[in-house]
Design a protein that fits this description.
24% helix, alpha+beta, 2 helices, 3-stranded antiparallel β-sheet, globular
């Protein structure tokens, strides 16, 4: 009796773990204000995380443009590199929500994801 009870618990645990894993799109964790990210953390579709500014930008933190002779940080061009001791931070709730919506490293399901066998839904 005891042996079958253990097997049942393992099977139920395996099924629930599989069901929960299936809820996350592509197995990628969601971007939230509760998570922390390192400076220059790259997210496809969103860009690079600038930890001191708690947001994502198109270019890496302190990217140097040789033509402009300037550095990019926090969405602005500067004559010298931005100096900050902040290397890890949490994004603002607004930044996290915006970036979660534009990231391209997850497969999304929703409107337009249903196939009707080549027939128009409205005909």
């Amino acid at each position: 009796m005891k042996r079958s009870k253990n097997i049942r618990l393992i099977l139920i645990g395996g099924i629930s773990a599989g069901a929960l894993a299936g809820c996350a799109p592509s197995g990628k964790p969601a971007i939230t204000a509760a998570n922390v990210y390192t400076n220059d953390y790259y997210l496809p579709g969103a860009g690079y995380y600038h930890a001191p500014f708690r947001d994502w930008f198109v270019l890496p933190y302190n990217h140097f443009d040789p033509q402009k002779q300037q550095y990019f940080a926090g969405g602005q061009w500067r004559s010298s590199p931005c100096e900050s001791i902040t290397n890890v931070s949490s994004p603002t709730p607004l930044a996290a929500g915006r970036v979660e919506a534009v990231r391209t490293d997850v497969t999304r399901h929703g409107f337009g994801g249903t196939y009707f066998g080549g027939h128009s839904f409205f005909s």
